[in-house]
Write a structure and sequence with these properties.
By secondary structure, the chain is α/β, with parallel strands linked by helices. It is built from 14 helices and nine strands. Strands 1, 2, 3, 4, 5, 6, 7, 8 and 9 form a nine-stranded mixed beta sheet that branches. Helix 6 crosses helix 14.
């Protein structure tokens, strides 16, 4: 009888121990869907694994494909965390109920309120400023002032823009609608179209190349495209101008992340998200793509910091998502292709 009781005791202990360690074993891997390419995310994931012991398994693809995949997988998704660029994509994921709210004192302390979702479903991890770049041989900085001023006739046949089909410009116009209203913003965008030196271009790099070649004098791009080009050829006649410093501030956007609604390792995903906002990871996350750390305590890479400081627009970026459809329709009416 004693032997039987001892056997039952050891079985109970084994069962209890197994039930305790099972969640820990499960939590040793977090699955990430990322619209950022491998070379931009792997260094942070490696650092996270080194610090926590939690492995990171990741899949990379474009934003649309990842959102479609999450929707199709539903409750069966293996993904615990979604990383993507532009707040419009994060907002779309939240609106489609693909993300869940996260309460984290760490994230609230590290990420300014205007760069995270008011409902706590997504969080910025790096900042990309969408600013003006001009040809130093054809434009004096004193000629430049605001995004809105690019609609002035003085810029006739002098402006280049990336296509309106890209979410970056959609978000910029959406934030302008939030600031100026739809009617005033439509006037501005029509002015931009009237001042174009060429049809809208396929990407920011092409727009910069056109400005450098003198085919137009000024354009609007994300700063990291400027950084990439200037690293290749520092002698290009290009310079940054920070617009709207006397009113709203420079339009900024983010790359960011959210914890998936149906992920299996929510706590591990939150740990990774918190890590990516920390002092240790912020420079890794921002510097590799010449972006700005979202954590205001962290200095930008010296190459990026050399472009000068600027006031950013403090309006919450959720507006870029909420007004994106309105922005797309407005640009279409304005003839912005």
């Amino acid at each position: 009888m004693l032997k039987s009781n001892v056997s039952h005791f050891y079985f109970a202990v084994f069962f209890l121990f197994s039930s305790l360690i099972a969640p820990l074993a499960h939590a040793e891997e977090v699955v990430v869907y990322s619209a950022r390419i491998e070379q931009l995310i792997k260094p942070m994931f490696d650092a996270f694994t080194k610090e926590t012991g939690i492995k990171v398994k990741y899949t990379t693809d474009n934003e649309g494909a990842l959102l479609a995949r999450l929707e199709a997988e539903g409750k069966n998704t293996p993904a615990d965390l979604l990383i993507t660029s532009d707040v419009g994509n994060l907002w779309a994921a939240a609106r489609a109920s693909l993300l869940k709210p996260v309460q984290s004192n760490v994230l609230e302390a590290n990420i300014p309120a205007h760069l995270r979702d008011p409902e706590q479903e997504w969080f910025g991890l790096s900042i990309r400023a969408r600013t003006l770049i001009y040809n130093t041989k054809k434009v004096k900085p004193s000629e430049l002032s605001t995004y809105e001023d690019l609609a002035d006739p003085k810029w006739n046949k002098r402006l280049c823009l990336r296509t309106s089909k890209k979410v970056y410009n959609q978000s910029l116009v959406a934030m302008m609608i939030a600031e100026h209203g739809e009617a005033e913003t439509e006037k501005i965008v029509k002015g931009w179209v009237a001042n174009l030196a060429t049809d809208p271009l396929s990407d920011d790099t092409r727009a910069l190349e056109f400005v450098a070649a003198g085919k137009c004098d000024v354009t609007v791009v994300n700063t990291y495209y400027y950084g990439r080009l200037m690293k290749k050829d520092p002698n290009l006649p290009l310079a940054i101008f920070w617009p709207n410093q006397n009113d709203g501030g420079v339009h900024v956007n983010i790359s960011g992340a959210g914890v998936t609604r149906h992920g299996r390792n929510t706590q591990a995903a939150i740990k990774l998200l918190e890590f990516l906002s920390s002092d240790k990871a912020q420079n890794l996350f921002a510097d590799v793509n010449m972006e700005y750390p979202v954590n205001p305590k962290i200095a930008a890479d010296p190459f990026v910091a050399a472009w000068g400081s600027f006031k950013q627009n403090p309006m919450n970026l959720v507006k870029a998502g909420e007004l994106q459809t309105t922005a797309v329709k407005l640009m279409d009416r304005a003839g912005y292709q």
